[in-house]
UniProtKB/TrEMBL annotation, chain A:
Protein name: Anaphase-promoting complex subunit 4 WD40 domain-containing protein
Gene designation: UTP4
Biological processes per GO annotation: maturation of SSU-rRNA from tricistronic rRNA transcript (SSU-rRNA, 5.8S rRNA, LSU-rRNA)
One Pfam family per UniProt: WD40
Species whose genome carries this gene: Electrophorus electricus (Electric eel)
InterPro entries on file: Quinoprotein_ADH-like_sf (IPR011047), UTP4 (IPR046351), WD40/YVTN_repeat-like_dom_sf (IPR015943), WD40_repeat_dom_sf (IPR036322), WD40_rpt (IPR001680)
Cellular component aspect of the GO annotation: 90S preribosome; small-subunit processome; t-UTP complex
One Gene Ontology molecular-function label: RNA binding
Automatic annotation (TrEMBL), chain B:
WD repeat windows: 53-95, 201-232, 439-472
Pfam families cross-referenced by the UniProt entry: Beta-prop_WDR75_1st, Beta-prop_WDR75_2nd
Compartments it resides in: Nucleus, Nucleolus
GO molecular function: RNA binding
GO biological-process terms attached to the record: positive regulation of rRNA processing; positive regulation of transcription by RNA polymerase I; rRNA processing
SUPFAM superfamilies documented for this protein: Quinoprotein alcohol dehydrogenase-like, WD40 repeat-like
Composition skew (Acidic residues), residue ranges: 768-785
Domain WD repeat-containing protein 75 second beta-propeller: start-end pairs: 341-661
Organism listed in the record: Electrophorus electricus
Region Disordered: start-end pairs: 759-814
Residue ranges, compositional bias (Polar residues): 788-798
One of the record's GO cellular component terms: small-subunit processome
Protein name: WD repeat-containing protein 75 second beta-propeller domain-containing protein
InterPro entries named in the record: Beta-prop_WDR75_2nd, Quinoprotein_ADH-like_sf, WD40/YVTN_repeat-like_dom_sf, WD40_repeat_dom_sf, WD40_rpt, WDR75
Length: 648, 831
């Protein structure tokens, strides 16, 4: 394999934003993650928590709450608007002003027919979910102060609202308040500091659980309005609560960064009467946990430290697999950086490295690309696409919705993915760019395209969409060529081999496929890999491969990387790693000659670099490695709440 | 050889009371704990030992209240028996022989007639694997029974008693070993096992150390090696069990206990802080700090009013309403006794190292610590790896008016800190007071120290590793600032730059012997002139002592291989013998010298006179390992044995401390018989009158009834003479906590005085004294019933023996006395 000159780059100061809200859609196992910058991510729990879709946000439009109404996703923010998202086109469908000032909370009833919105002015507004939008239905009795948390009774007949110092129980039918539960300040708290109910949960037996700013999780009897149990969980705030579907487990996220689990257990074994008992505490966050989800077999939590943690509840899992391990999601499951193979520096989005492009407008960038010749940069937001010449910073603006952009290898064509899985082809010249044609798939599933890749000879273009389909287009004939057999897991990275024109795909479940475009079938190598099976340690990795490239000298060497390692697969070596141990190159080198040969295999793995964003091998055999250490991200976060540490 | 069997080695108190978890009785009045091979019953209020239950032949490993009768207690022992006692009267009720070494005992209300014990597995007798066994106790009436009906409950359990506990209602039993928790459900006969990982990324040490079960809920609390406490629930499921974790202790949790209602969980560890966790509010906890010693066991009384914590320094603290109310202190035995054993002639107490930084005064007679003298006067921090001041040397002068101590910190010369302190006995305060502190009295650590036995001077000699010995004298001139005379260095001596090892004064204080490596030098304390040197190579002199009384012309010395005896008159070696002497001690009351010799893992004892070549007494294999210290303790009443072998024990007893820090002594057959007789006597006494309390109160009641029916007769009056003495004895010798109110005692006491003095000569003087003392009593006890007192004694007397005849004059005098007496006091009380 030889040795490489490494450009170890850390100038890309990528900063993810904090997780603000989480919502789970149980039918399709989707988790929606709202971040403070207004962007939205959809993770597929069935597909190794692969980040399927990303909807970019806008400046000044932070999201406060998320709610699924059936398959539809709604969000609300402090700008007072309700937003519905178009999940196919990956953009906002419409916005609607709730006309009650900033919206703090939003919930949908379990039937998926009504949305309840808690507003700054103290009203709870009910919206009916119609086929084509939402319609204002009524206001519940107006209270003094803002509504900070809301929860529906599972039957949909009651609504519980948390405010500063008080919890109201409303009858959803009449709109009148049924109970008023006073939440007292914790002992020793100053008089001026009111106890804010950050989160409430209403259970099917009428029990109400509340989490408040004095660090208590309180269990109330909803029928009589009396406090049953008080659990002092933390000295700081309890910010989020979530209950499991079967209502046997409840989790609370706190400002200390802990997630506390409560379980509904019978105090005496075998007897019916049960109590909420504080059981486990998970400490995976350094900062506030702003959102939690209890998903029966796992607890998902996210907060100010920008990471999303999936903590499995091992007692509910029968077989221990890679899916049942603790997972932390730090970076998006996409390529954020593109690199030109000429000796120009790589470009990242939003780049602040050698030269930062300041973009006008308040919309966030959804994708970017750098042409292989290094002369063109293209940046797209939800509504428009900008093309830059690198020499003179000339901008050519095209207003088109684009999800994915890709250049042809000779930098003469620009491919932009658009609505209805279609791809627009633009021809680039010195004077500017001209629209050539639109490529449409044979059968339109309507899902947005997530990945685009063009072959080196300019003949092929492959596009992968959110339905796991990969369409191949013939660029010379300018029409659809074939469809790669659909695999159950999403494509995380793909590329066309410049020598053989084989499409190399890596999926979210870490499987590797190679598809011959000429023969329209999987190659022998791919079949061999699947017959023998990949190494269990390879399959147990928890971050997806985000980039696939080929060595310019020897295209049989495939270079791929995920967050923690990069790997070069030598396709000429048929030998796959033995079942016993997946040895990486560093340990291999330390072994004696004889053993080294016994342990050597086609997967050359290097774990020298930490928290990789991008790896690319240049023409002159030098390796560009872009790192983003997590410590740097943590250093930029605001200080966490002060905690007493033992022996300090 | 027959004579030799007369003398045997016995334990003489000072045994551990913190060996196993004690129990508090239902009414919280008594605390019952295992102590060596007996069970002790302490009063929780007065800290007195009420009963000692003798009977076991080996270490008692556990005690448990009989669930069927709360006035009975089971005890189990390594001798393979379980005994049932009545702890109120101190009577052995039954003995069940199991036949295996029992390491702990558990009982439950649900399993009456069955006890659960931990035994070594039958498969391997070397005792590495243990099992929990249920024993059905036979219900026959005999006193000694064989319990052979064993059924195994759990195999491979930990032998530590704290690692097993009965669950709520006795439905299940939880036991932890290593990293595994087992829960056995009796009804389903099913075992659930839960495993923890040994460690994790954060460096947790998850091994279990103790287990406790919630008395009302199904919740098991487990303590762990790293100080975590886990509360387990839902443990009747293989997978969906759950636990919550609490962490306060920074080191292993050694004891856990739930309060009887389940409101609180108590935990303790090496921090010597009792932590009270609130079960309902998990984050709330109360602390009881500075209990003075690592907590080994916690016990809660059945009514939840009283807690007790056993500490590793042989102490039991009784805590009521979360405040320390009483402390029961046994003989503190650390890792080693660095100071020598000494006898305080004033209190006849054994003086040795106590808790860190203290000297303890331990009464061997009463098996009780009298007091602890704080030498270092610094707070001791209970944390591993800290170098703190320890008392390493102590010496008392002949009359115990001066005490010298050396405290030391650090073992290397660079970090060595030590000081010599001299304490004078304050007669008024009845305790030692610090007189002089000398910091760094030598360049290097002090190896030996002794007071001069001469009566006219108080002189202290210290010998140190800096090749010098120093003589300290109490200054005669009084300072202006200080009221007292202080000590100062008088003389500094050395010999050829050799390192001194030991020093010793002759019996009359006229000679000082200091050993320098292989040479013994003799100095005159008057002129500090080197008189002579004695040398017998090879080997460094380790121990040195002069003979006593008629053998005072001999000087004894030991090297690692030899025991040497020099005649000081001829300045020549009298005799020498080859033996590895670990300890050499002279009896202060006789010429006898005891030498413990280490011989192939065992220690032999030789008692000899320096003048005679033949030893007075030898005993092979006194104990296993080296003897650490020994001392002759003068007897209060000398034995009169004329047997040659046991004659040396007539005037004093020999106590010695083994490697396992056991305090042992020698006992003769005559002594054994005497103790046995006294015990029998006590039993007979008990059968007549249960307790002194019953005796007094019962008689008082009888008398009250009698008072109404009959007028006391004259003859009854006279009968009080012998009985009166008994009353005094009872009053003085009964522990205070079992005495009836002073209002009863007062009259009895007074009457006994009154009658006993009637035979005296100055009859006229006495009544007035009597009246005076009674007046005082009346003042203090206002509710005293005036008429009951004398009559009570009268009837009491009539129970006993026939009235002795008195002369008419005496009788008349008595009657007169009585009348005046009464009228005087009644008028006084009415006024």
């Amino acid at each position: 394999m030889g040795e490489f000159t490494v450009h170890r780059v850390r100038f890309f100061h990528y900063m993810p934003s904090a997780v603000r809200a989480l919502a789970f859609q149980p039918q399709r196992q989707k988790i929606a993650v709202a971040r403070t910058d207004g962007s939205l991510e959809i993770l597929n729990r069935a597909d190794h928590l692969f980040q399927e879709k990303v909807i970019p946000g806008r400046e000044q439009r932070g999201t406060e709450a998320l709610a699924w109404a059936g398959q539809r996703l709604f969000s609300a923010g402090l700008n007072g608007e309700l937003v519905e998202y178009d999940m196919q086109e990956l953009r906002e469908k419409y916005r609607l002003d709730a006309s009650g000032g900033p919206v703090w909370t939003l919930t949908c009833n379990p039937q998926g027919t009504r949305l309840a919105v808690g507003c700054e002015d103290g009203t709870v507004k009910l919206f009916e979910v119609c086929d084509d939008g939402i319609q204002f239905e009524r206001n519940l009795a107006k209270q003094k102060g803002r509504i900070l948390s809301l929860s529906w009774h599972p039957s949909g007949s009651r609504l519980v609202a948390g405010m500063a110092g008080v919890i109201w129980v409303f009858d959803a039918g009449t709109g009148q308040s049924v109970h008023r539960l006073l939440v007292e300040r914790g002992t020793g708290a100053p008089r001026s500091k009111e106890c804010v109910v950050w989160s409430v949960v209403c259970l099917s037996d009428g029990t109400i659980v509340s989490g408040d700013s004095s660090g208590n999780v309180k269990v109330w009897d909803g029928d009589t309005g009396t406090l049953i149990r008080n659990h002092q969980v933390t000295k700081w705030d309890v910010l989020a609560l979530s209950v499991s579907q079967d209502e046997t487990s409840l989790v609370a996220g706190t400002s200390e960064g802990t997630v506390v689990q409560f379980q509904h257990l019978s105090v005496v074994l075998g007897r019916e009467d049960k109590e909420w008992v504080q059981t486990r505490t998970f400490k995976n966050h350094t900062h506030d946990v702003r959102a939690v989800l209890e998903l029966d077999t796992a607890v998902v939590s996210g907060g100010m430290d920008t990471q999303l943690v999936v903590r499995p509840l091992l007692d509910k899992i029968d077989v221990k697999t890679s899916a049942s391990a603790l997972r932390k999601i730090h970076f998006p499951h996409r390529r954020l950086v593109s690199c030109s193979r000429t000796n120009l520096p790589p470009l990242s989005r939003p780049s602040r490295g050698t030269r930062a492009l300041q973009l006008a407008g308040e919309e966030h960038i959804c994708c970017s690309a750098l042409s292989p010749c290094g002369g063109w940069v293209v940046v797209s937001t939800v509504t428009n696409l900008r093309l830059y010449r690198l020499q003179c910073d000339e901008t050519i603006s095209i207003t088109k919705v684009t999800n994915q952009i890709c250049f042809s290898s000779d930098s003469s064509y620009l491919f932009t993915a658009s609505t209805c899985s279609s791809v627009h082809v633009l021809a680039l010249s010195q004077s500017g760019c001209t629209f050539v044609c639109t490529l449409k798939p044979k059968s339109c599933s309507g899902q947005a395209i997530l990945l685009l890749t063009a072959s080196d000879d300019g003949k092929w273009l492959a596009a992968a969409n959110a339905d796991h389909e990969v369409q191949v287009y013939n660029l010379q004939k300018r029409k659809a060529y074939c469809t790669v057999p659909v695999y159950s897991s999403g494509v995380t990275a793909m590329s066309i081999n410049p020598a053989t024109n084989n499409l190399f795909m890596v999926h979210a479940d870490q499987q590797i496929f190679e598809f011959s475009l000429e023969q329209k079938q999987y190659t022998d190598w791919s079949r061999l890999v699947h017959r023998k099976g990949l190494h269990p340690q390879w399959l147990e990795r928890d971050t997806p491969v985000t980039n696939v490239t080929f060595s310019p000298r020897n295209p049989a060497h495939v270079i791929l990387h995920d967050m923690y390692m990069f790997c070069i697969i030598d396709q000429t070596l048929v030998r796959l790693p033995s079942v016993a141990k997946l040895v990486n190159q560093l340990t291999l080198r330390s072994l004696p000659e004889k053993e080294r040969r016994a342990h050597s295999h086609a997967f050359k793995i290097c774990k020298t670099f930490k928290e990789l964003l991008f790896v690319e091998l240049l023409e002159d055999q030098s390796l560009v490695v872009i790192e983003r250490p997590l410590l740097d991200i943590t250093a930029q976060l605001p200080p966490p709440v002060r905690q007493k540490k033992f022996a300090t | 050889m027959v004579e030799q069997t007369d003398i045997r080695v016995v334990r003489c108190g000072g045994s551990k009371i913190c060996f196993s978890t004690p129990i508090l009785t239902n009414d919280s009045r008594f605390l019952i704990c295992a102590s060596g091979d007996s069970v002790k019953v302490f009063s929780t209020r007065t800290e007195e030992c009420v009963h000692v239950l003798h009977g076991h032949a080996n270490q008692v490993t556990g005690v448990a209240l009989n669930p069927a009768n709360h006035l009975q207690v089971y005890s189990c022992s390594l001798d393979g028996t379980v005994r049932l006692w009545d702890f109120i009267d101190g009577i052995l009720i039954k003995t069940f022989t199991v036949g295996y070494k029992i390491s702990s005992i558990y009982v439950s209300n649900k399993h009456i007639g069955v006890i659960f014990i931990i035994l070594p597995m039958q498969s391997n007798e070397n005792g590495e694997h243990f099992q929990l066994v249920a024993v059905r106790l036979p219900s026959a009436l005999e006193q000694e029974l064989e319990a052979r009906e064993l059924s195994a409950v759990l195999s491979d359990v930990s032998p530590v008693p704290a690692c097993t506990a009965f669950g709520q209602g006795g439905d299940y039993i939880a036991s932890a070993k290593g990293l595994q928790l087992c829960v056995y459900f009796f009804r389903k006969q099913k075992t659930y096992r839960f495993k923890l990982k040994a460690t994790d990324k954060k460096g947790a040490r998850n091994a279990f150390t103790c287990v406790a079960c919630h008395p009302k809920d199904d919740c098991i609390a487990t303590g762990h090696q790293d100080g975590k406490i886990r509360l387990w629930r839902n443990f009747n499921q293989k997978k969906e069990y759950t636990y919550s974790t609490q962490h306060w202790h920074h080191n292993a949790v050694s004891a856990l206990c739930f309060s009887p209602e389940g409101m609180h969980l108590l935990s303790g560890g090496v921090e010597s802080v009792l932590v009270q966790w609130h079960c309902k509010e998990v984050n709330k906890k109360n602390f009881l700090p500075r209990l003075g010693g690592a907590i080994a066991h916690i016990c809660v009384s059945p009514d939840g009013q009283m807690y007790s914590t056993s500490h590793t320094n042989n102490k039991i603290t009784i805590i009521s309403s979360f405040r320390v109310s009483a402390v029961i202190q046994g003989l503190v035995k650390g890792g080693s006794v660095q100071t020598d054993l000494m006898i305080d002639p004033r209190t006849k107490a054994l003086v040795l190292n106590g808790k860190p930084g203290h000297l303890q005064f331990y009464s061997l007679e009463r098996d009780k610590q009298l007091y602890s003298l704080d030498i270092v006067q610094q707070e001791y921090i209970y944390q591993a790896g800290l170098d703190q001041f320890e008392v390493v040397k102590a010496a008392l002068d002949g009359t115990a008016s001066w005490l010298a101590t050396v405290e030391q910190r650090g073992s290397k010369i660079s970090s060595l800190e030590f000081s010599l302190k001299l304490w004078s006995f304050n007669e008024k305060a009845q305790s030692f007071e610090l007189n002089t502190t000398i910091t760094a009295p030598h360049q290097n650590m002090i190896t030996a120290m002794c007071f001069s036995p001469a009566m006219d001077t108080t002189m202290l000699v210290t010998v140190a590793k800096d090749d010098q010995f120093k003589v300290w004298l109490l200054g005669s001139d009084l300072d202006e600032q200080k009221k007292q005379a202080s000590w100062s260095c008088e003389h500094l001596g050395s010999y050829h730059g050799l390192q001194p090892t030991n020093c010793c004064f002759s019996g009359d204080g006229s000679l000082l012997a200091v050993s320098f490596a292989e040479v013994v030098t003799l100095w005159s304390p008057d002129t500090w002139e080197l008189l002579t040197t004695l040398c017998q190579p090879p080997g460094t002199i380790e121990d040195l002592c002069f003979g006593r009384l008629s053998c005072s012309k001999y000087l004894l010395g030991t090297t690692t291989k030899n025991l040497l005896c020099w005649n000081l008159l001829t300045c020549a070696l009298e005799w020498s013998t080859s033996m590895d002497v670990c300890v050499l001690r002279t009896d202060p009351l006789s010429e006898n010298v005891a030498a413990f010799c280490h011989n192939s893992g065992k220690t032999d004892l030789f008692v000899f006179r320096p003048s005679e070549p033949r030893p007075l007494f030898t005993q092979k294999a006194v104990c296993v390992g080296r003897v650490q210290r020994c001392i002759f303790v003068p007897r209060e009443d000398p034995l009169d044995s004329c047997d040659e072998w046991s004659q040396w024990l007539n005037r004093s007893r020999l106590h010695f401390l083994t490697e396992q820090m056991e305090l042992l002594t020698f006992s003769t057959r005559a002594e054994d018989e005497r103790i046995l007789n006294s015990r029998k006597e006590l039993l007979v006494d008990d059968s007549v009158a249960m307790t002194p309390f019953y005796l007094l109160l019962g008689k008082h009641r009888q008398q009250q009834q009698e008072k109404q029916t009959s007028v006391p007769s004259q003859a009854a009056d006279r009968a009080q003479l012998p009985q009166g003495c008994v009353a005094i004895r009872e009053l003085l010798h009964t522990p205070a906590h079992v005495l009836p109110p002073a209002s009863f005692l007062c009259s009895v006491f007074l009457n006994s005085l009154l009658i006993s003095n009637t035979g005296g000569r100055d009859e006229k003087e006495l009544p007035e004294q009597e009246v005076d003392s009674e007046k005082e009593e009346v003042d203090s006890e206002e509710e005293m019933e005036m008429n009951n007192g004398p009559q009570g004694v009268r009837t009491q007397g009539s129970v006993g023996e026939a009235p002795p005849s008195l002369s008419r004059a005496e009788e008349k005098e008595l009657r007169r006395l009585r009348k005046t007496d009464f009228s005087w006091v009644t008028s006084l009380t009415s006024s």
